[in-house]
Automatic annotation (TrEMBL):
Residues 187-305 form the CusB-like barrel-sandwich hybrid domain. It holds the Pfam family BSH_CusB. The keyword Zinc does not apply. PANTHER family: CATION EFFLUX SYSTEM PROTEIN CUSB. Residues 231-270 form the CusB-like three alpha-helical bundle domain. Belongs to the membrane fusion protein (MFP) (TC 8.A.1) family. Keywords: Transport. This is Efflux RND transporter periplasmic adaptor subunit. The keyword Transport applies. Residues 309-385 form the CusB-like beta-barrel domain. It comes from the Bacteria.
Length: 472
């Protein structure tokens, strides 16, 4: 029974101590008086205090109520000052408190910089217009070089990522409009070299397809008849080879086909009507002849074109011309063939730039066995650009292009970054060729690099402002 009573008294004493501690904290009772009132011997452990600058102020009862300036509660109690060492931080700090580290290895403060990033420094501690403390810059943090140091906590919050520089093939598609045109080497005309009268024209009109050697018309030419008579006379008289060759040459000069000359030689007769045949396979583009008309020397009677191979002329802008090379693969699409594409290669880059369009014509030869491509069709042309050899390239996101200079941020490891000026080359498929400034195997920042670049520029500006103050 006595043991139960003693246990109850002990528990009551503990509860009383707890209640007393609470009221002592609330009503501000002195620790010594509390010790005497409870009858506790010994000392109470002092609560550790924070170090560093005051970050903000918190409700004294640890409620989620904060203030940037000193403040009091409704009952007159002051908010508790929360210092830098007491706040949650993602910065990389060595083991122990900041105060312990500072006592172990004191660092020399070079200057204090504006907490909002403004180009304003001070040789002594101060506050800005908003009451924020200036941030000290220590000797180890400003080495005077171009390397920027960023803590791992900041790297995680800003999302900085880096990738390894490798060699790859850089290429892209140059998309330009084009026009289907005839191959100039596959166009022929039917004409006479002397005055002639058209006796008969076969049933061939514009747009019809003809084959090589097909009869097109019959005509009578006085000059051809006279030359044929002289040739026949030389044949019948057994003339010399030179005379016979001269008469044959006159017939050839008048445009008489070889088969017509052979016919005169075989029949020993000069026909009144000469047969004119198609010189090639193709499509009739023009028919300018009718029966009974008189044709003069050089008059175009028929115009024929072979469309089995055709050209596509594309206008490439001047700024894309350096990416196009002869032999580059080309894909062509026309509106009359939805869902179908034709392939070819660049055969010629014309040696001039259009004064009005600032574009250069590129010629693509393409097979057209089905005849689906017709002259003057509109075409959508995709030209594959870039070289076949791998080059040093970085992602487009790694390049900071100011217009006058190109910069990438090198990742040196351990939170160290270095801006590097580079010279660029071809661009395509999300990558940019680097011709100078970066080597294979380097690591470059591909995300949030503009933040590091801004920090580097700010650091350089502050260094220029504070260099005289940093002198001993």
């Amino acid at each position: 029974m006595k043991r139960i009573v003693l246990t109850g008294l002990t528990l009551a004493a503990v509860l009383a101590a707890g209640v007393g501690g609470y009221w002592a904290g609330v009503r501000g009772l002195p620790v010594a008086g509390l010790r005497d009132w409870l009858g506790v011997e010994g000392t109470l452990a002092a609560e550790p205090t924070g170090t560093g600058t005051v970050i903000y102020y918190q409700d004294p009862d640890s409620k989620p109520v904060y203030s940037a300036m000193p403040r009091q509660t409704a009952d007159g109690r002051a908010f508790r000052a929360v210092r830098a060492s007491e706040d949650v931080s993602f910065e990389d700090t060595p083991a122990g408190t900041a105060e312990t580290t500072r006592q172990a290895s004191p660092r020399r403060i070079l200057y204090y910089r504006n907490p909002m990033g403004l180009p304003d420094t001070s040789p002594a501690p101060k506050k800005d217009a908003m009451g924020m403390d200036y941030i000290p810059v220590y000797a180890g943090e400003d080495d005077g070089g171009s390397v920027v140091r960023v803590s791992l906590g900041k790297l995680q919050r800003t999302g900085v990522r880096s990738e390894l520089v490798v060699r790859r093939t850089v290429g892209r598609l140059v998309r330009v409009p084009g026009i289907v045109q005839l191959d100039e080497r596959r166009i022929s005309v039917v004409a006479t070299r002397s005055d002639a009268f058209i006796n008969e024209v076969v049933n061939v009109t514009t747009g019809d397809r003809v084959t090589k050697g097909q009869v097109l018309l019959q005509l009578y030419s006085p000059n051809i008849a006279a030359a044929g008579a002289q040739f026949l006379t030389d044949l019948n008289s057994g003339g010399r080879d030179t005379a016979l060759g001269g008469a044959r040459q006159r017939l050839e000069n008048l445009g008489l086909p070889p088969e017509a000359i052979a016919e005169i030689e075989r029949t020993r007769k000069v026909p009144l009507s000469m047969t004119w045949r198609a010189p090639r396979d193709g499509v009739v583009l023009e028919r300018n002849v009718v029966e009974g008309m008189k044709a003069g020397p050089g008059d175009v009677l028929f115009r024929l074109a072979d469309i089995s191979t055709i050209w596509v002329l594309a206008d490439v802008p001047e700024f894309d011309l350096g990416a196009v090379r002869i032999g580059a693969p080309v894909t062509i699409r026309v509106r009359s063939l939805p869902g179908r594409s034709l392939t070819g290669r660049v055969s010629l880059i014309y040696p001039q730039v259009g004064e009005a369009t600032r574009a250069t014509r590129v010629r693509i030869e393409i097979a057209n066995p089905d005849g689906v491509l017709l002259p003057n069709m509109y075409a959508e042309v995709e030209i594959g650009s870039g070289g076949a050899a791998p080059v040093v390239a970085v992602p487009d996101s790694a390049l900071i292009d100011t217009g006058t200079r190109q910069v990438v941020i090198l990742d040196r490891g351990e939170g160290r970054f270095e801006p590097r000026d580079v010279k660029t080359g071809l661009r395509g498929e999300g990558f940019t060729e680097i011709r100078q400034g970066v080597a294979e195997g380097d690591r470059v920042v591909v995300a949030a690099n503009f933040l590091i670049d801004a920090e580097s520029n700010l650091k350089a500006a502050l260094r220029g402002l504070t260099q005289p103050e940093a002198q001993p």
